[in-house]
Design a protein that fits this description.
MetI-like fold; 72% helix; flat; 305 residues; disordered C terminus; mainly alpha; 2 domains
Amino acid sequence: MILAKKKQRDFHQLSTPWNVVFNLFAGIFAFLCVFPFLFVVIISLTDEGTLAREGYRLIPSEWSFEAYKYVFQTGDTLLRSYGVTIFVTVVGTIISLLFIAFYSYAISRKSFKYRNFFSFFAFFTMLFNGGLVPTYIVVTQLLGLKDTIWSLILPLAVNAFYIMILRTFYSTSVPDAIIESGKIDGAGEFGTFIRLVLPLSLPGLATIALFSTLGYWNDWFNALLYIDNPNLVPLQSMLMRIETNLQFILQNSQNSSLGLEALRNMPQDTSRMAMVVLATGPIIFAYPFFQRYFIQGLTVGAVKE
């Protein structure tokens, strides 16, 4: 018996050379994933003239912060846009999680009489939608959300695809016996969900939260449609406006000597890279908060000794 356990333990252990190979492979793969963003950061810190002469290099001969100075010339506008985006992302993710979690839990329970109807109701919106014009009319005229912060939050609050993902997670990872035990102890549907189902659903909820966070952070289209107030412009939309102004100057630089002078003093490629860093940098630091739950989600249903 002891010999069998020892053989089983040795079977699951890797030898030192193979362990080194797998760790080396994982390290190279991780570096290839991180390298593009690091290279973008390097380009954003490269002098524009050096970039034009030498091209893209890992270690440029001359560094410069002119690209970031150009972007930050907007002053308080950039900080205000960051504040709007952070508020929309945090509040929108919380509201989206509440809607999706409750809806998905209801249609995942076999005891819910109308589960098929509401499942089809959500699935149907994945196949057909009302179109841009009816959506705009509903948001601006029926709901009256034009030029309000809620026009950036509510249109993205419910996603049918996320509902289907979380419904499947509830069906496969939350046993009916746990819910029955809650009912036996006298807990209602809401109490059962909060006390028993919610702790088991953290991996699935973390996945949906990350998807919603990325959706809200990268959204610019709703601001283009519904926002005219400059104090409510989110980060992505503001960076697009900076890029549009840059393109306008480049296209009209040959019409005047003033345009040529502005073109010579303006960082072009490096400013674009700086915008990428400013837009994607903060959201990268949010991933470690979800990583632990992703690992738990990968091990759900695994055989444990």
